[in-house]
Amino acid sequence: MKADQHPAWQALRTYAETHQDTLRHLFAADPERGQRLRAGGAGWLLDYSKQRLSGEVLGLLLELARQAQVEQRRAALFGGETINATEQRAVLHTALRAPADAVTEIGGENVVPEVQEVLARMAAFSKAVRSGEWRGYTGKRIEAVVNIGIGGSDLGPVMAYEALKAYSDRQLTFHFVSNVDGNDFAEKVRDLNPETVLFIVASKTFTTLETMTNAQTARRWLLGGLGDESAVSRHFVAVSTNAAEVEKFGIDTQNMFGFWDWVGGRYSVGSAIGLSLMLAIGAEGFREFLAGMHEMDQHFLEAPLEENLPVLMALTGIWNQNFLGAESLAVLPYSEYLRLFPAYLQQLDMESNGKSVTLSGEAVSYSTGPIVWGQAGTNGQHAFYQLIHQGTRLIPCDFIGFARSLNDLPLHQDLLMANVFAQSEALAFGRTAEEVRDSGVPDELVAHKTFPGNRPSSTLLARELTPRSLGALIALYEHKVFVQGTIWGINSFDQWGVELGKVLAQKIAPELEGSGAPHHDSSTNALIEWYRREKA
Ligand code: F6P
């Protein structure tokens, strides 16, 4: 069913057309609002009081979730039903982090034992590499790990590695090659020694152009340094669902860590795709990371909708986007370790919910996934926050922060967090022209120094960035995306939109070498011809 056919959607539309709630008024009318509009789960606190939600709107949004059958779809997700209908697949990333004795079935078969078996193999391998027992071809221990992958086979691992660097084994260095631009590979391996490098070729399909090109280049680079084909098995491992292609590439399937088609690429960081993270933080740390994800899964599964963090975040997003006219979501982590989190979320959210037809193929008549962007604070404050505060667009923000720093330097953490709280306060309440005038600002500058306020934000807080809290944060956003996709009636688990470009690139690549007339539109033909001339 289309989202705008639900009675609650229609009531929300009428409300939005007839009310203009402001955060100043909402707070003035309810002195307890800041204590009331918050919820906690899996170590995270969500303050959503600075969202433009009246009690009536909140009630209607919860109704909408019920009318869109969020609870039933959630049960179908966790129950291993084929909810990715366009690819005829179950969606069971939650099974990757289920406890060893849990039962999660697809078509009557429990998948948890297989998951645990791969985790145990990953743990043994990580231990061998970290301890120096696993040696390179010339007998030297591994000093550098290079993950080759793209999309979900890169963004999750690199984001989580950067986020948990404080917990990593500093005897090893980690590098992530994703772009088909050869400069990525060249720069990342520039200072590495082939004798001490371990390449992880991470690709669900093992056919992705970028990853296969980089993997072949890595192989040539390694053989250029070591000169012997048999070195490959000591320096290459693969993570994939496609054993046949892994073998064809020349990686021994003994050195392959598998996963399954019911794990979407952007939901795969808890699978063997997270091998680089496990090598960095150890098997115990990785278990903690999975435990945090599982804790959030349980919260999502069990908490009533009105206290359910992913549901509340999804609903506030829908209110902002479909009824208040916002088009994007700024994700602003106040932790340098989380600097890649916005990039990670871009794939998670935009590849999942960047859809314009419903599950039954009907065009939607409302906007779906938001444009997700952001940067670590406080850096963004000196770049784009001006537009958020005084620009013409409504840009809801998610602030993310921690009570404790992992590097306890005097002053820094308090100053960092003071900025989180200051930003959301300024966005919500602004500064009226009267207040500006009263502070002695000359008349001609009053308009310039006025802050309209009434700009919605949520604040997510945890005590400390740990493998567990990071796992929970990732799962929180995964489920938020799922709830929104459910309400919009779309399939959050396919990504057909990325295919056409891939097909055309395969067609154009040989044309760039050739000299015959290219067969495209006049613009593309002219661009190809320019390239041929200039590169000659
Ligand atoms: O961008 C399309 C996509 O299929 C993503 O969904 C996926 O994460 C990425 O490519 C990489 O795919 P693979 O892991 O199969 O190389």
UniProtKB/TrEMBL annotation:
InterPro entries reported in the protein's UniProt record:
G6P_Isomerase (IPR001672), G6P_Isomerase_C (IPR023096), Phosphoglucose_isomerase_CS (IPR018189), SIS_dom_sf (IPR046348), SIS_PGI_1 (IPR035476), SIS_PGI_2 (IPR035482)
Q: Which reaction does it catalyse?
A: alpha-D-glucose 6-phosphate = beta-D-fructose 6-phosphate
Q: Which UniProt keywords apply?
A: Cytoplasm, Gluconeogenesis, Glycolysis, Isomerase
Entry's PROSITE patterns? P_GLUCOSE_ISOMERASE_1 (PS00765), P_GLUCOSE_ISOMERASE_2 (PS00174), P_GLUCOSE_ISOMERASE_3 (PS51463)
Which EC number(s) does UniProt give? 5.3.1.9
Q: Which GO terms describe its molecular function?
A: glucose-6-phosphate isomerase activity
Q: Kindly report, in one word, the top-level EC class recorded for this enzyme.
A: isomerase
Q: Does the keyword Cytoplasm apply?
A: yes
**Which biological pathway?**
Carbohydrate degradation; glycolysis; D-glyceraldehyde 3-phosphate and glycerone phosphate from D-glucose: step 2/4; Carbohydrate biosynthesis; gluconeogenesis
Residue numbers annotated as active site: E351, H382, K502
Q: Where in the cell is it found?
A: Cytoplasm
Superkingdom, taxonomy of origin: Bacteria
User: Cross-referenced Pfam families, in alphabetical order?
Assistant: PGI (PF00342)
Q: Which family does it belong to?
A: Belongs to the GPI family.
Q: What does this protein do?
A: Catalyzes the reversible isomerization of glucose-6-phosphate to fructose-6-phosphate.
Q: Which protein, by its recorded name, is this?
A: Glucose-6-phosphate isomerase
Tell me the gene name: pgi
